[in-house]
Design a protein that fits this description.
The structure holds two protein chains of two kinds.
Chain A (H helix, E strand, L loop, with lengths): L10 H6 L2 H11 L3 H6 L3 H12 L1 H19 L17 H16 L1 E2 L4 H13 L10 E2 L2 H5 L42
Antiparallel strand pairs in A: 1-2
Helix pairs in contact in A: 2-5, 4-5, 6-7
Chain B lengths: L3 H5 L3 E7 L3 H12 L4 E4 L9 H13 L65 H5 L19 H18 L5 H5 L19 H9 L4 E3 L5 E3 L2 E4 L12 H4 L35 H5 L7 E4 L2 E7 L16 E6 L9 E12 L3 H10 L15 E8 L18 E6 L13 E6 L9 H11 L18 H11 L3 E8 L8 E3 L14 E3 L6 H22 L2 E3 L16 E5 L2 E7 L30 E3 L14 H23 L4 H7 L2
Parallel strand pairs in B: 1-2, 1-9, 2-6, 9-19
Antiparallel strand pairs in B: 3-4, 5-11, 7-8, 8-9, 10-13, 10-16, 10-18, 11-12, 12-13, 14-15, 17-18
Classes of the chains: A mainly alpha, B alpha+beta.
The complex binds flavin-adenine dinucleotide (FAD) and iron/sulfur cluster.
């Protein structure tokens, strides 16, 4: 597993190695690879993304963020958000990137906008990658419980991870600020 | 067991109870404790009444995209339930006016499976609002010989007795001493469990609470606010002093009797407590004696019968003979079989709206049935803690039960002649209160780049991601809190539940046709709401917190909670929604001229027919109604016991007179 990530993975390569998905999720979420792995959701989210837009498009999204991350890391100070794929370049990727962010934070796949979805259906006609219908859904009960939003809310997911009897009397646990240096790159 | 057995073997019950919710379960338990044979007919399935089923519901809740109160529970087209976001899904009502959308749940266990579990007693004044304030209707209870605006000592003793018994059955945690200061009727008393600790947010508010708050028009009424621990039906630690040192033992979870968990702060009481620390009727049902209580699920009662369908020659004498009910196998199918259950006493405990529907469908000849539908109007005032207080303004929303404190002092007073009193709770669950609420902020920032109501809308759409998103959320979410302001709505005969042959569900049962508005009480409610919001604002100012809300009239989108009315105040638009405390649909009173049932919740028209629940209440003040309903259900059970003794003529007159008290 220690083989370096390819700058230009194929869809199969993206699907076979979850590090590609984690690597692009770092700048998308603002959390470290350790934080992301700790949710236990990496593989399920990676599968969800692939099922919704196709493996090759997911790999394209990785390529976009790899490039933007390298550009950002060369800057000082390092910017705290990276340029999205623009809607004019690729409306599907632009929407998919936002869906990935929401998935990490909330645990739900909210789908693509009608415009991007129409493009996706069109693209599927010529070069099909196999994609599921555009529906909003909670990825799984665990996804809900492990949403990153609960790490920045001061609380815990309602209906899970209870902090214990009477814990609500005490001040909440302080929320760590995001890192400011270079974005981690998985190699 | 198949329901056929009742018909073919002609098993006759002492009582048939319609509905396995809180009131039906309490009545069944008490009757069986007295040795009576009881049949509960439950419209819904029993799918959450096992450990496995309950756990599956917890998982379904976690997996739900929209975490509405009904989200953990499977939809059941054979016995549909209303939904707070879909006001005409089950109810039939005009969609262009005020909407009644207080949900309830039709499955074994009923609506309190997803209730909050806040259980205040009513104030004495709440029972006599007409005499004292010229508002709404009085309860038909004996008043003081010398002072008609006060309850008689025997009435007060009766209320205390049944409140205490209800608090025992529900395992209530509370602090009677603290509550006594807010004028609630709790004589020297110890709750079964110690009070649930007040939240960190409560303490922040208590720190800035003034001795007096000017309240009402131009602050003319001066009120001493009091932050009291809210009494709650959820497990804390048993009170060793309870019942003079007898102590209290909470009842365990279903399927796991020794699992009497304390509240762990899951913060999902609405819609489901994963550890069953919150009271649900499943607990009461676990104490049923199997040989005396039969529970038949998937049995939807369609009407009460006043004749014997199997023996047509039996005379009609005005007494209910039993009920007709429909049994289905598969909730998705329209197929059903019709049956008949016989009993000495028929008890409707199917929820205020369903009870009214059944009385109407049974042809009970009383013009007050289905009138006076009321609820508690609810308004939220939202604010953000300032950055400087606490841990960077972090008060940790979504920790602990939804409300651990009441801000009391505004629930009863002379102002009630002019505008609604209110009961304030400090809400520990951020804005919106629901578990999916924070998804709105995440989506707004990722999709639009700003927080509606908080930020200015940017000129060009922006999408936030990464560290910027994380920082923005961490600077906002942890500071969210809201005051929940619960108001009084007086009984009004124009608010109705009716039935029509044109509107039926899959099994051919009636759907409730609803007509509902504040109507002539609009000023009373809305003025009360304005004064309540003013009190919340005073606290916000003292906290250095900033209020947020909609600055433009909101437009209801599909999926939004249905709204009864809106008002504008101080530049903000407030929604008034229903607290899901449906009541008044078969009110109690002195005779059939003014009401449907008597003070024991017995039909004026048919002496062996009872309709129990919030539907019997002529006024609900500002108290969440279920504790009072539970107390009244226990009183009814004692009266039914007395009726049955009478019928079966087994005891001397003196004894059952006592029991009927
Ligand atoms: C989200 C929410 C939060 C709440 N929080 C609180 C709170 O904190 N404090 C409070 O005091 N109150 C609260 N309430 C209100 C409380 O839930 C109701 O007052 C209470 O459930 C009413 O009890 P009930 O037994 O009359 O009706 P239900 O609990 O609805 O039970 C009725 C039962 O009858 C069954 N039934 C219905 N029709 C038929 C039929 N035709 N045949 C056979 N069976 C039938 C149903 O399936 C159900 O099991 C809350 C309600 C909601 C929705
Ligand atoms: S706060 Fe949690 S543990 Fe406590 S009753 Fe509510 S859901 Fe159950």
């Amino acid at each position: 597993m220690t083989a370096p990530l390819k700058p230009d993975p194929t869809g199969e390569q993206f699907a076979a190695d979850e590090r590609y998905f984690v690597d692009m999720s770092v700048p998308l979420t603002g959390f470290s690879p350790e934080d992301l792995y700790a949710t236990g959701m990496v593989e399920e989210y990676q599968r969800t993304l692939i099922a919704r837009i196709g493996a090759q498009r997911a790999a394209d999204l990785y390529r976009h963020y790899r490039k933007k991350k390298q550009e950002a890391n060369a800057k000082s100070p390092v910017p705290d958000e990276l340029p999205w794929p623009t809607a004019t370049d690729d409306p599907i990727l632009a929407d998919a990137a936002r869906a990935v962010v929401k998935m990490w934070y909330v645990g739900a796949w909210y789908g693509l906008s009608p415009a991007a979805e129409a493009k996706l259906r069109e693209a599927e006609k010529t070069k099909p990658q196999g994609v599921a219908p555009n529906e909003a859904f909670m990825v799984s009960p665990e996804a809900y419980l492990n949403g990153l939003v609960w790490k920045v809310s001061g609380g815990h997911p309602p209906g899970g991870k209870p902090p214990g009897y009477g814990s609500w009397q005490s001040p909440p646990v302080p929320i760590p600020a995001p890192a400011t240096g270079s974005y981690e790159e998985l190699s | 067991m198949t329901a056929d057995r009742y018909a073919h073997n002609r098993v006759r019950y002492h009582a048939v109870i319609v509905g396995g919710g809180i009131y039906g379960s309490l009545v069944a338990k008490r009757l069986s404790e007295n040795g009576w044979k009881v049949l509960i007919l439950e419209a819904g399935t029993g799918s959450v009444a096992t450990w496995e089923g309950y756990s599956a519901a917890v998982d379904d809740y976690r997996a739900a995209l929209h975490k509405s109160p009904n989200s953990p529970y499977l939809p059941n087209p054979a016995a549909p339930s209303p939904d707070n976001t879909d006001p005409s899904g089950y109810f039939v009502q005009q969609l262009d006016g005020p909407l009644y959308a207080s949900d309830y749940l039709r499955t074994l266990g009923g609506t309190t499976l997803h209730w909050e579990g806040v259980v205040p007693r009513m104030h004495e004044g709440d029972f006599l609002t007409q005499t004292r304030y010229g508002v709404g209707k009085n309860w038909p209870l004996k008043v003081h010989d010398k002072d008609p605006s006060a309850l008689s000592p025997t009435t007060l003793a009766m209320l205390h007795k049944y409140y205490s018994e209800a608090e025992f059955e529900l395992g209530v945690a509370g602090d009677a001493k603290a509550l006594g200061k807010s004028g609630v009727m709790v004589p020297k008393y110890t709750y079964p469990m110690k009070n649930i600790p007040q939240s960190y947010l409560d303490r922040k508010i208590a720190e800035v609470l003034p001795e007096k708050i000017g309240y009402g028009p131009h602050g003319t009424a001066s009120v001493e606010p009091n932050m009291v621990p809210a009494p709650q039906a959820r497990n804390s630690s048993p009170n060793p002093d309870y019942r003079k040192g007898e102590g209290f033992r909470p009842v365990g979870a279903i399927g796991i009797p020794n699992y009497g968990e304390r509240c762990q702060g899951n913060s999902s009481c609405i819609p489901i407590c994963p550890v069953q620390a919150k009271y649900t009727p499943l607990r009461t049902q676990s104490q049923f004696k199997d040989d005396l209580v039969t529970v038949a699920t998937r049995s939807v009662v369609s009407r009460v019968l006043f004749h014997d369908p199997l023996e047509k020659s039996r005379p009609r004498n005005g007494r209910a003979t039993g009920v007709e009910y429909k049994v289905y196998e598969d909730p998705r199918s329209r197929a059903f079989t019709t049956h008949y259950a016989e009993a000495d006493i028929v008890v409707l405990a199917a929820h205020a709206i369903e009870n009214a529907k059944l009385l109407l469908a049974s042809g009970v000849d009383n013009k007050h049935i289905g009138r006076n539908l009321m609820d508690h109007p609810l308004v939220y005032a939202k604010a953000l803690m300032p950055d400087t207080r606490g841990v960077g303004g972090n008060i940790g929303p979504h920790r602990g039960p939804p409300a651990t404190s009441f801000l009391d002092g505004f629930r009863d007073g002379a102002w009630r002649v002019g505008f609604s009193p209110f009961r304030a709770a400090v809400s520990n669950w951020g804005w919106g209160g629901m578990a999916d609420a924070f998804s709105h902020e995440v989506r707004a920032l990722v999709d639009e780049g700003y927080l509606p109501h908080v930020d200015e809308k940017p000129k060009a759409a922006k999408h936030l991601s990464g560290r910027a998103l994380r920082r923005k959320l961490a600077g906002h979410l942890p500071r969210q809190f809201q005051m929940e302001l619960l108001l009084e709505q007086p009984a009004n005969e124009n608010n109705t539940v009716t039935i029509s042959p044109d509107f039926r569900d899959n099994l051919g049962n009636f759907r409730p046709v609803i007509k509902y508005a504040f109507g002539s009480d609009s000023d009373y409610v809305v003025d009360g709401a304005r004064h309540a919001v003013a009190v919340a604002r005073e606290l916000f100012t003292r906290l250095g917190a900033k209020e947020y809300g909609s600055k433009v009239a909101p437009v209801r989108k599909p999926g939004d909670e249905a709204v009864i009315a809106r008002f504008e105040d101080g530049g903000f638009h407030y929604d008034i929604v229903g607290a899901r405390h449906g009541a008044g649909t078969h009110i109690m009173g002195l005779s059939a001229d003014d009401s449907v049932v008597d003070e024991f919740q017995r039909s004026h028209n048919h002496p062996n027919l009872y309709a129990v629940g919030c539907g019997s209440m002529p006024a609900i003040g500002t108290s969440n109604p279920t504790l009072t309903g539970a107390a009244m259900a226990l009183r009814s059970a004692d009266q039914i016991h007395s009726d049955l003794m009478d019928l079966h003529n087994t005891l001397s007159v003196t004894l059952f007179e006592k029991a009927g008290q």
